[in-house]
């Protein structure tokens, strides 16, 4: 029987979408584009200007963004619009898998996808792997629900979204092979084949393999045969969508071959060393996905003890994806996106078992939840003060004792309530309390990861250095141009000695031209260079320096670890650039 959906299911999905929209689109264009973002945005802008750029493998992002630039103009907001929209659409993916996950877990997963810090951060980055993840899950979900045409379109978009797809497919393939190996092992003699009906409210008539006392080991679930016509529709829709999107309806035919470079690009990463150490990947998971890890570990222990099929499959997928991300030499923290999907799915499956409030125990359960909230809030405030306290010191020792003491007191109190009162009251009350506190923590971390709380915060989901004074540089160039010509974007800019796509994007309205040497006989109006005393050109110039790229000192993390944990602050270095303006362009210049 199909599980009965919970009450207000449509309303809950709508709330999850609204939450995702707010976190992904709020002040989306406020932060300057980094070099990695600007490189892709410039390709899209070049297409609009009629050029034929050598596109990267992120064809879907480049071509879809080029359409937006052509219609509305080139802005930071539009450069990030497609990933933000894809990140919002990811919230709908659990609905397509609701028959496999069960409706309550699917709704929880939708909210988890909406507030996950990594997914929020990646959705606000131009050309991020969020496109691959969203289109892949939507393609799989549409295929499961026997909708081959949408599945084909989403599959084509996933293929056009960059090398991240191959990491995800490799992880799924290895996890499937492990599960097949486990399912081929002989079943234990004492295993029973009886099943137990899941009786949680809103789920009558459904069965849960996690509730079977002695279930069979991993065995394939029989599925109805898929008609051949569905495969034909899938293939047709994929080819048409692939051709239309990759060539931008034949306006950018180079995209047809560019997407094929994603596979060689992924394999190239296996022989190229990256700049992000593996330890930073574990740090990102532990800090940003604390809530998910806690629930997922409980689910994994329970699932493997009871041989639950879903839990084992998801845990294998998560483990394989994590190992691939860690051992991939050119890894970035964004590669963890394929770990986050099964991680939050495990968390949703586990949390859905602990949220039932029994009427006769409601008051006692609320009491345990309030007690849990108070102790966890005290622990967090104590950690906050500890980050501002010199270590080692007597005050720091007291704070550390209070922090761990409050956590120990919470654990002992819940155990005592379980033994002396009711195991259900202790479990459900603690689950509600932990969910509220860690849910608020996750939402706050997501707000910080988006860059909305502090633009100078050091986050882990984009390895490119932050751009500091892009708006000030652009404003200065516009003012000089308006003084000299009456129009803000008439004066061209020459860039010398700086390799920064973000700089070219910032000055895109001034037709920037990159040169490798300055001609002593030339006299460009505006020149951007690294710091230097004299340009050696025929005309005299005045210069103004700007902070450009800010790179955090991760070597100092051991000293500032607590401060980074609470405030995301680390010492950083700033790269300076100089905007030179020819003397005769100033208002106070002497006229001949």
Features:
57% helix, 592 residues, 6% strand, 25 helices, alpha/beta, 6-stranded mixed β-sheet
Task: Give a structural overview.
With 592 residues, the protein is an alpha/beta fold. It has three domains: 9-182 and 242-274, no CATH class; 359-449; 466-585, no CATH class. 57% of the residues lie in helices and 6% in strands. The protein has 25 helices and six strands. It has helices spanning 9-25, 35-48, 59-72, 76-79, 81-89, 93-96, 98-101, 103-115, 117-123, 130-144, 148-159, 164-183, 228-247, 255-258, 262-268, 278-288, 290-305, 309-327, 337-351, 362-386, 394-420, 423-449, 470-485, 501-506, 557-567; strands at 466-467, 493-496, 513-515, 526-529, 541-552, 572-582. Strand 2 (493-496), helix 24 (501-506) and strand 3 (513-515) form a beta-alpha-beta unit. Residues 187-221 have low confidence and may be disordered.
Number of domains: 3
End-to-end Cα distance, whole Å, is 90 Å
Tally of DSSP β-strands: 6
Give, in spatial order, the strands making up the sheet with the most strands. Answer: 1-5-6-4-2-3
Number of helices: 25
Mean pLDDT: 85
Radius of gyration: 28 Å
| Large-scale geometry | globular
Low-confidence stretches: 187-221
- The fraction of residues in strands falls at 5-15%
Which structural class is indicated by helix and strand composition?
A: alpha/beta
Q: What percent of the residues sit in helical stretches (DSSP H or I)?
A: 55-70%
Main sheet makeup: 6 strands, mixed
């Amino acid at each position: 029987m199909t599980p009965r959906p919970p009450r207000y299911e449509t309303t809950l999905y709508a709330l999850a979408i609204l939450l995702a929209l707010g976190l992904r689109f709020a002040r989306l264009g406020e932060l300057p584009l980094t070099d990695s973002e600007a490189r892709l945005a410039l390709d899209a802008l070049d297409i609009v200007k009629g050029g034929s750029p050598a596109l990267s493998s992120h064809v879907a992002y480049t071509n879809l963004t080029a359409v937006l630039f052509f219609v509305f103009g080139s802005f930071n907001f539009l450069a990030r619009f497609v990933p933000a929209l894809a990140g919002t659409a990811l919230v709908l993916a659990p609905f397509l898998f609701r028959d496999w996950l069960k409706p309550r877990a699917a709704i929880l997963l939708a909210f988890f996808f909406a507030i996950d810090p990594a997914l929020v951060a990646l959705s606000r980055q131009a050309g991020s792997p969020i496109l691959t993840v969203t289109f892949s899950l939507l393609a799989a979900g549409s295929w499961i629900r026997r909708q081959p045409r949408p599945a084909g379109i989403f599959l084509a978009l996933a293929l056009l979204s960059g090398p991240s797809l191959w990491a995800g497919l490799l992880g799924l393939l290895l996890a499937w092979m492990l599960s097949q190996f486990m399912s081929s092992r002989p079943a234990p003699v004492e295993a029973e084949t009886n099943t137990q009906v899941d009786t949680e409210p809103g789920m009558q008539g459904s069965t849960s393999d996690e509730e079977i006392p002695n279930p069979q080991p991993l065995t394939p679930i029989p599925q109805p045969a898929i008609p051949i016509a569905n495969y034909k529709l899938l293939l047709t829709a994929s080819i048409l969508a692939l051709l239309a999107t990759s060539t931008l309806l034949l306006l950018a035919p180079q995209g047809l071959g560019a997407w094929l470079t994603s596979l060689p690009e992924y394999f190239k990463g296996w022989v190229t060393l990256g700049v992000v150490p593996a330890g930073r990947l574990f740090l990102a998971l532990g800090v940003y996905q604390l809530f998910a890890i806690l629930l997922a570990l409980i689910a994994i222990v329970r699932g493997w003890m009871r041989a639950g099929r879903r839990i084992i499959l998801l845990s294998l997928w998560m483990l394989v994806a994590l190992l691939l991300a860690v051992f991939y030499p050119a890894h970035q923290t964004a590669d963890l996106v394929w770990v986050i999907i099964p991680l939050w799915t495990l968390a949703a499956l586990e949390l859905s078992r602990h949220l039932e409030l029994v009427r006769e125990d409601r008051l006692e359960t609320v009491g345990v939840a309030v007690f849990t909230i108070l102790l966890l809030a005290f622990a967090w405030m104590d950690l906050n003060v500890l980050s501002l306290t010199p270590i080692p010191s007597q005050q720091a020792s007291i704070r550390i004792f209070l922090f761990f003491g409050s956590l120990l007191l919470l654990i002992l109190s819940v155990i005592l309530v379980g033994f002396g009162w009711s195991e259900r009251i202790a479990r459900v009350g603690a689950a509600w309390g932990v969910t509220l506190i860690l849910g608020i923590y996750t939402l706050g971390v997501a707000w910080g990861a988006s860059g909305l709380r502090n633009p100078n915060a050091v986050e882990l989901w984009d390895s490119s250095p932050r751009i500091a004074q892009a708006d000030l540089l652009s404003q200065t160039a516009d003012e000089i141009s308006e003084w000299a010509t009456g129009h803000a974007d008439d004066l061209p800019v020459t860039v010398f000695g700086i390799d920064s796509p973000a700089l070219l994007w910032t000055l895109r309205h001034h037709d920037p031209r990159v040169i490798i040497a300055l001609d002593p006989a030339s006299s460009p109006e505006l020149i951007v260079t690294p710091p230097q005393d004299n340009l050696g050109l025929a005309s005299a110039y005045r210069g103004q320096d700007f902070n450009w790229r800010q790179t955090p000192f991760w070597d100092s993390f051991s000293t500032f670890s607590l401060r980074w944990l609470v405030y995301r602050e680390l010492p950083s270095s700033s790269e300076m650039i100089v905007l030179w303006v020819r003397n005769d362009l100033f208002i106070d210049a002497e006229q001949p």
